[in-house]
Write a structure and sequence with these properties.
Elements: H1 2-36, H2 39-47, H3 49-69, H4 74-101, H5 111-116, H6 119-138, H7 142-172, H8 177-209, H9 219-223
């Protein structure tokens, strides 16, 4: 029975990794569609969202099957619980990639404005965090997960800075009110990507250390052992 469970858990982990890879690529294409003004890329992201949703359903069903046919405990149980939570975050990240790509058309021709208000800096940082989030699960790396949680604060600070820059731009140039409004929606979505990557990092720490650290960004607390 345990050999069967091992095989099932390995298959589950493989599905999560494949879904993570797909979502990471969706985010990459969505951001490129913005800065390159490439509407075809944006359409690609939107059309491939069904593929992300299919993985979401497959992983949920896989977890249900393992629960129904085995009695997982300790690390194995935590892996299934973490897989369910990570799956949910990845699915939401896929949806956010679609939301970002939908801003490509209304922001067509405003790549200079995006860079002026530092959206490129924010998107680069968040894409790095997303990659780290997927990597920390793939490599069962709790230390990398802790770095992600601390980096999320940097994104929050950048989010506030960009908000101030956008509002200032709107005050100084009324012609920029409409594109700036779209940018406000855009940065909210980009910031949420970081939040979901942080959730994944917290799930990895729960998986590896059996430690719940949600809502904690205190570096000292993250270093503590049980």
């Amino acid at each position: 029975m345990y050999h069967y469970l091992e095989e099932e858990l390995e298959q589950l982990k493989t599905k999560i990794i494949k879904m993570g890879s797909l979502v990471e690529e969706q985010i990459e294409l969505a951001v490129r569609s913005l800065f390159e003004g490439n509407l075809d890329l944006a359409k690609t992201v939107i059309s491939r969202d069904d593929e992300v949703d299919k993985y979401d359903i497959k992983i949920d069903k896989h977890c249900q099957r393992i629960f129904a046919l085995t009695q997982p405990v300790a690390f194995d149980l935590r892996l299934i619980m973490s897989a369910l939570m990570i799956n949910s975050d990845l699915e939401r990240m896929g949806d956010i990639a679609v939301n970002i790509s939908e801003r490509a058309e209304p922001l067509l021709g405003y790549s200079d404005l995006l860079k002026k208000v530092k959206v490129d800096e924010m998107s680069d940082k968040v894409r790095k965090i997303v990659k780290m989030g997927i990597d920390c699960f793939v490599n069962s790396d709790a230390e990398l997960a802790k770095k992600i949680i601390l980096m999320d604060e940097e994104v929050d600070h950048l989010d506030k800075l960009i908000f101030d820059l956008i509002t200032q731009e709107m005050k100084e140039n009324s012609e920029m009110i409409v594109p700036c409004s779209h940018i406000l929606t855009l940065i909210r979505n980009i910031e949420r990507l970081s939040d979901h990557a942080t959730n994944i990092a917290e799930d990895v720490i729960f998986l590896i250390d059996a430690k719940i650290i949600k809502h904690s960004k205190d570096p000292e607390n993250l270093k503590q052992k049980e």
